Amino acid sequence: MGSAYGVAGSTIAFLIWVYFSAQILFFGAEFTQVWRRETSVPSDASRG
């Protein structure tokens, strides 16, 4: 029975790790997008 709890605990710990890793990745992507938008030089693409 102890082995089943160990497997369940390891699975939950792994899923929590994946969740937080994804949150860090998404936060970094969002931060990079906003930072790039705020610091970029306007292009001439709007001239058509």
Q: What can you see in these coordinates?
A:
By secondary structure, the chain is mainly alpha-helical. It has one domain. The protein has 1 helix and no strands. The longest helix has 38 residues. The N and C termini lie far apart (69 Å). The mean pLDDT is 89.
At a glance:
This protein is mostly helical and 48 residues long. It has 1 helix and no strands.
Layout of strands and helices, then pairs:
Blueprint: H1 2-39
**In terms of quaternary structure, what is this?**
single chain
> If you compute it from the alpha carbons, what radius of gyration comes out, rounded to the nearest whole angstrom?
21 Å
Q: Give the overall form.
A: rod-shaped
How much helical structure, as a percent, in the residues? over 70%
The mean pLDDT is 89
Count up the helices.
1
- Compute the number of structural domains: 1
Poorly predicted runs are none
Tell me how many strands there are.
Answer: 0
Distance between the termini: 69 Å
Beta-strand proportion: under 5%
SSE series? H
Give the structural class. mainly alpha
- Biggest β-sheet, characterized? none
